[in-house]
Amino acid sequence: MRKTGLGIFLLVLALGGCGSLAEKETFPEEERKIVQLGTEFYEETAAENQEDTLENVRSLVEQFGSMGYAAIDGRNQVNMSQPDLVLEFCQKVEQKEKGKLLLIEVLSPEEFVIYHFQTQEGQVNVKKRYYEWKDGKMVLADSGSFSAESWKYWENGYLMFSGVYYSEESYALTLSGEEEYAAFRILPLQEQCREGNRTYLLPIGYEYNNLFITDWTEEDFGDLDFYDLYDHFCFQMGEPYVPEGSYEIGLERETYRIPAAAFERIIQTRFSITSETLQKKAAYYSDDDTYAYCPRGLQDMEYPEYPYPEVIDMTEREDGTIALTVNAVFPYKGISKAFAHEVTVRPLPDGQFQYVSNHILPSESGYEFTWYTPRNKIEDPAD
User: Tens digit of pLDDT for each residue in 34-69?
Assistant: First the structure.
């Protein structure tokens, strides 16, 4: 998974011993079979109007695997096929041997990037070639190259690398290179962990909220910011942030009074919390039974680089709750486990669920959540 927001697949072909880094490139011929397979797969799925589905992703990964390629879904939802090919190249880098690796990152069935890696004396050079479906065929839309400034295979199964990527298209627009931060899971995960991540963690993540970066329980919600969670939940449910019956009040920042019933309904969908408790955790006005609400603004923006959650273990408890052990993968920092935490959720009979608790797991190195900016507090009605 890269820092780019779109979903991706990876396709990796490890090639045998190689000559010097300066030898003549034969990339187009090496790519011919890949482009042909991508073309046929896209035409087939497009004809069925189901191009970008998880099952299609899984099918494509398996097809590449059956052809002898190592392949992975860049959204981190499907295990890599034939991961030994990638591990072999990583070993050559570590041992400062010569080697080649061809890796394909599929953004969707109609666009993908082919990476050509070459290593010698521990240095890794990277060439990128971006293909997209245009005018009824796959065409080479852009290409460029860079030297990997960092390259590391982590014991928990991640390959991470970074560098400054130069291409004709990006340089023409910005007169500079584009930073590349890549994180590719090589070793497999259990399918239930991936499903748990899609259901409970990824919809919230670590962006503009502290649900997973602070300790809290249903008995003590601690410093949990329910306004940030209100924003996330409204977006997921397709609900307006400022519902009918709200009105604006004259403070320096754009601030509203939201009917208590509307605010509490959104929060209580995902938490077992009483109205009385919630009223103490947010700016509640008893005179007209409303909550003050102020959107985030320029004053409380966050640095736009975030880790993403990855569930590595799930345990069902006797009380019906589920405990999920989660690693925070941070491509921008080149860290495969910036920190770890345990999330407990409660599945409900209607198919919904509630968040029960979060606990940051101890770490010898510790970690600061440098990207997180607390939301500006709204004036307390009591003041």
Answer: 888 889 988 888 877 766 788 887 888 788 788 878
Q: Under DSSP, is residue 62 helix (H, G, I), strand (E, B) or coil? A: helix
Burial of residue 7 (CB within 10 Å: 0-12, 13-18, 19+) is middle
Rounded CA gap, 309 and 298, in Å? 26
Chain-centroid distance of CA 63 in Å reads 25
Longest Cα–Cα distance of the chain, Å, equals: 79
pTM score: 0.87
Annotate 266-315 with three-state secondary structure.
HHHCCCCCCHHHHHHHCCEECCCCEEEECCCCHHHCCCCCCCEEEEEEEE
Q: Is 203 left (phi over 0), alpha (psi -120 to 50) or beta?
A: alpha
H-helix or E-strand containing 249?
strand 247-249
pLDDT surpassing 50 at residue 13: no
Q: Is 283 exposed, middle or buried (0-12, 13-18, 19+ CB in 10 A)?
A: buried
Q: Give residue-wise pLDDT tens across range 85-142.
A: 999 999 999 999 999 988 888 777 788 888 889 999 999 999 998 989 899 888 999 9
Cα 311 to the center of its chain, rounded Å: 12
